[in-house]
Amino acid sequence: QLQLVESGGGLVQPGGSLRLSCAASEVTLDYYVVGWFRQAPGKEREGVSCISSSGGSTKYADSVKGRFTISRDNAKNTVYLQMNSLKPEDTAVYYCAADPPIDGSDCLSPPVFGSWGQGTQVTVSS
Known about the structure:
By secondary structure, the chain is mainly beta. It has strands at about 5, 10, 20-25, 35-40, 45-50, 60, 70-75, 80-85, 90-100, 115, 120-125.
């Protein structure tokens, strides 16, 4: 069974950077689409970014385009989310999720994914 563990969250000042990691165990991530999602208090979980199994295709929410970069290292069985120019509105619990690719599915849509990590808190505050 695919198990995902996020790390790298923390407290950062506005304008700062963090790199989140999503490490998989038990199963190789090579054939999975991986997405990053976030959920702020009182809000629905929203898609942030996703990456194809090969890493050749990526997608970003409009709110993070130009600031966040998703990447993957299949040799390390890990997907990363580099977050730059962080804003207070980026504060949320960040989750990674994975699922085999499905043609036509929206990889920024939470229901597409069946395997989820436990989340890591990101707080952007001065």
